[in-house]
Amino acid sequence: MEFNETQREILVNAWLLARSGHGQVLSDEAIPDAHRLCEAGWLERYFRDGQLCWRWSRAAEHSLDVNGLLQAADGRQN
User: Which of 19, 41, 46, 69 would disulfide-bridge 59, Cβ 3.0–4.6 Å?
Assistant: First the structure.
């Protein structure tokens, strides 16, 4: 999946906020991009205090972990 600038910003912020167990509230303009990221498995939707929020998904974290393992294995083979 290729990401546009808004999606990249959403993903970076979600990843950073996940380190402290938080999500993000987005502007109305960014919500369609967040929905696309959610459908692709990168984000999870949830409501907090009546607001729609977005957080880094477990599937996204797992994807990064697997990618890191594959890169480490490739490096050992060279």
Answer: 41
